[in-house]
Amino acid sequence: MRRFRGTIRAVILLMVLAIPAASAAEGMGRIAATSPGIAEIVFALDAGASVVAVPEETRYPLKAAILPKAGTKNAPDLEILNRIHPDVVFLLPASKGLIPEFEGEGIMAFTVEDRTLSDIRKSIVTIGKVLGRTKQAQALVSSIDKDLDALRVPSEQRIKRRVLVVLDRQPGKLNRLIAAGADSYYHEIIRLLGCENACAKIDGFEAVLSLEGIVQSNPDVILELRGGETLSGQQRSGIVGDWQQMKFLTAVMEEQVYVLVQDFVEIPGPRVVDLARLFSSLIRPAK
Fold it and tell me: In angstroms, how far is the first alpha carbon of the chain from the final one?
């Protein structure tokens, strides 16, 4: 297995080293993005030609998805990144401990956050500034805000509709489910759409719910996020069917349990507007 992994790393490095320095966007040098959201931001700022490494979870845009991989969002591969030796690497706060390693190799490292809508805006601005794409970053943020404002529901049209966004859970089980908490962009989008986050009283990006907690939240809509997964109709039915264990919940009784597999549903980045539109189509009752 170790020999196999070593072979994969060698192939990745050969792919990266084959990218000519001239392919980098003017004045930027080589860029490593360590999260799918960061990669999408860089490409949205028209700096994709400079990217030489992305995490394994990257699926969009296609030009990013086919680039060499350097670890995962939660575990960037320091060895591959050091050998690739980008000029700049963008990290999430969980990986900030790697900064001294990169700086020791002469690689500029910056951290950006992605938990809230404000974080996403700031990340776009920060990345734009580092890459000399300040105007493009400002335009992108303005475009996102304009599109989100178009979806915003006036306060007088708000409804008491509780939405549970499920981020993770064990197959076939509902106990110790992980949902979107009050300090998440999911919470903000739900509020923007005139509804309520079922976990609005739980601080943090993630909220861990027991069976009792789910009962207390009694959501009107349940959104299970399975971003990028290829699921058969039977598998989707199985995921929805798990909720029959709690068939007394409003969402279950009214058949308002949805499985979302779109690749953007778990990627905090420029396509957050697509997420808001999708949520709007599901959680707002038809007129």
Answer: 57
